[in-house]
Amino acid sequence: MSTQKHAFQAEVAQVLHLVTHSLYSNPEIFLRELVSNAADACDKLRFEALNNPALYEDAPDLRVRISFDADAKTLTIEDNGIGMSQEEAIANLGTIAKSGTREFTSRLTGDQKADAQLIGQFGVGFYSAFIVADKVIVETRRAGLPASEGVRWISQGTGDFEVEPIEHAERGTRITLHLQGDAAEQFLNGWKLKSIINKYSDHISLPVQMEKEEWKDGEKEGEPGRMVKTGEWETINQASALWTRPKKDITDEQYIAFYQHLSHDFAPPLAWSHNKVEGSTEYTQLLYIPSKAPHDLWNRDKKAGIKLYVKRVFIMDEAEALLPSYLRFVFGVLDSADLPLNVSRELLQESRDVRAIRDGNTRRVLGMLEAMAQAASAKPTDADVTDVTDKSDASKTEGAQANAIPEEEKYARFYAEFGAVLKEGLGEDFANRDRIAKLLRYASTASDTVSVSLADYKARMKEGQKAIYYITADNLAAAKSSPQLELFRKKGIEVLFMTDRVDEWAMGFLHEFDGTPLQSIAKGAVDLGDLQDEEERKAAEEAAAQFKPVLEKLKQVLKDEAEDVRVTTRLVDSPACLVVKDGQLSNQMARLLRQAGQPVPEMKPVLEVNPAHPLVTKLQDQADTQFEELAHILFDQAVLAEGGLPRDPAAYVRRVNNVLTGNAAA
Ligand SMILES: Nc1ncnc2c1ncn2[C@@H]1O[C@H](COP(=O)(O)OP(=O)(O)OP(=O)(O)O)[C@@H](O)[C@H]1O
Which family does the entry's similarity section mention (predicted)? Predict the structure, then answer.
């Protein structure tokens, strides 16, 4: 079979164009990407060889080798990992399978500066070779295939690539980069290459080797000395997996580089925790909390960020059984000493060891969050109770000094990025519900920033106040102008604003905090208990009695829209508002569900009217037709006030216009 030409998939061509045409601010990352791919290829071989040791052929020692030829201007990265068959080379190096990278290309704008920043966020793996090279040659053979089934892949990084069969005795992949201009000067230098590997790839668990060089003096008088290669290979990284090293031997920079390798995030993490856990099940955990939400956080298929190793052998990426889904933003590594090497995803779901690990990971992440939350608040909270269930090293918010975000601002940053995900835990993780509840923060009538904890709220509750009051709304502005708030404002009672979509669902699982019930002010009748004085109560009762005939009439006119009509004391400036019965979906939630195409049971809200409002008092002496018009306006306005739409908007407009033009009876 001879050479075949293939066109790159359109997205690849786009990425390549960007890589080669935009000034890449950080060209050296190509080496990190290629070494990381080489190490992954070795991990894959080790994993496949668990069931098929013959794949090791006669070279069981896995390593990555980097060499260069300054005269030919080439740099070579070679691994003896899994390698690729011809089909694999064409598919893996000519198309983009990863949804992340595909999303990346769909977001390209054509503006080089913006696109170059984007590329930084996503990373483009193998294609980063073309940042520095104008020609890339990949020679590879898949483990287990005969030497005659090697393949050579060549591309100039433009529209196409060539593939031809070759003899390739050694298993694995050799990538040769032909460096161009500046890049040749910059990178064809042993010292420079070593320093880059130390910076980015030191944590790689296999040896990364380079040819040993020695200083040789000039042979003749006046001839300059130079470095010459000795023909021996030396290992230039530590070659032990980072998480297996003692904490004291790992620098913040190394922790951060490892995080960036796991996450492809360019920013440092907010915090990490590294522990050896001993007890009924033994494992090492290294968990990171990112400082920024990934683009697919809300994607239901978002993969878990935990890599599973068993006794240092890589088993799988995205091991979702190791953390509950509400902590899906965490990246890290879990290395178990007890799980079998052939553990499958199915087995993971059922294993008791895995359950213990998952609980341990959950506690650890919550502990990190508590430490951050504590650093953010001047006064100590219960959050600093140390976790004694894990026998492990202490875990503070490690890595604090390495991040530009000040310690006391970290929790707010975390919460802005991931707070809504954390709330899912209220419904998902009953065992830790109290710990999660302590981590919640809200804006409120007393604070525009999302910073009020339930404990803060409780601490400043009014004398006689029996509940923690909150309101759910689509956004802060809607929450703040909600009619239901009026009485609370007047009495100076704090109300929490819950404006995340998940809030109402999540609050369905949190009925009390530290012995105090949580009460939505848009549900059920308000009972301010001791906060309402006797006079107000009397006035309300009198109003109810006096309004009875009006209420009866309103009920009759609005029987299709409202479940009930009653007078309320909760309103001050507004004529009316809608409430739902305790335990019912709020109107806002029902709207959200309907928008999402979910079936929502037909339910009618209760209309509450303010007997002190002129529009309501006016009802008392209206003739029937006007009464009906006003009643509908009153109801529709209450719907509008909470962000909904009247059932028949055109009829609403007609009615209001009639009133405005003094033509109400028409
Ligand atoms: N040295 C190698 N040995 C074997 N296969 C490789 C090697 N380098 C790349 N590949 C294959 O090419 C694919 C594409 O590589 P690329 O670096 O673009 O993406 P990735 O490694 O899947 O993603 P990422 O770099 O974001 O982790 C890899 O998934 C792998 O299958």
Answer: Belongs to the heat shock protein 90 family.
pLDDT of amino acid 391: 36
124 has a pLDDT exceeding 50? yes
**Domain at 243-406: CATH code:** 3.30.230.80
Q: 207 to each of 53, 61, 67, how far by Cα in Å?
A: 21, 9, 14
Q: Topology of 441-529 in CATH? A: Rossmann fold (3.40.50)
Which pLDDT does position 344 carry in this prediction? 78
Say how many C-beta atoms besides its own lie within 10 A of residue 598's C-beta.
9
Under the banding of pLDDT at 50, 70 and 90, the label for residue 22 is low
Q: Is 125 in the pocket of ligand 1 (CB under 6 A)?
A: yes
- Which architecture, in CATH terms, is 533-665? Up-down Bundle (1.20)
The string of pLDDT tens digits covering residues 160-213 is: 999 999 999 999 999 999 998 889 999 999 989 998 888 777 778 899 999 998
β-bridge partners, 65: 78, 209
What's the CA-to-centroid distance between 137 and ligand 1, angstroms?
Answer: 15
Q: Whose CA is nearest to atom 31 of ligand 1?
A: 92
Distance 125 CA to ligand 1 centre (A): 7
pTM score = 0.73
- Is 324 close to ligand 1, i.e. is its CB under 6 Å away? no
Q: How far, in Å, from the CA of 556 to the mean position of ligand 1?
A: 70
Stretch 291-317: mean pLDDT, rounded? 78
**Which ligand 1 atom sits closest to the C-alpha of 101?**
26
pLDDT at position 475 is 87
Chosen CATH of 4-212 out of 3.40.50.510, 3.65.10.10, 1.10.287.1490, 3.30.565.10: 3.30.565.10
What is the average pLDDT value for the chain, to the nearest integer? 86
Question: How far is it, in rounded angstroms, from Cα 117 to Cα 89?
Answer: 29
User: Which part of the chain is CATH 3.30.565.10?
Assistant: 4-212
State the closest ligand 1 atom to the C-alpha of 81, by its place in the atom list counted from 1: 3
* Exposed / middle / buried, residue 325 (Cβ in 10 Å: 0-12, 13-18, 19+): middle
Residue intervals of the chain classified under CATH 3.40.50.11260 are 441-529
Question: What are φ and ψ of residue 49, in 5° steps?
Answer: -75, -15
43 lines ligand 1 (CB under 6 A): no
Q: What is the pLDDT of residue 441?
A: 97
Instruction: Decide the pairing of beta strands 150-155 and 4-7.
Output: unpaired
Q: 92 alpha carbon to ligand 1 midpoint, in Å?
A: 7
Contact between 178 and 135 under an 8 Å Cβ cutoff? The reply is yes
- Model confidence at 243, pLDDT cuts 50, 70, 90, reads very high
Q: Where in the chain is the domain with CATH 1.20.120.790?
A: 533-665
Task: Tell me if 632 sits within 8 A of 652, measured CB to CB.
Answer: yes
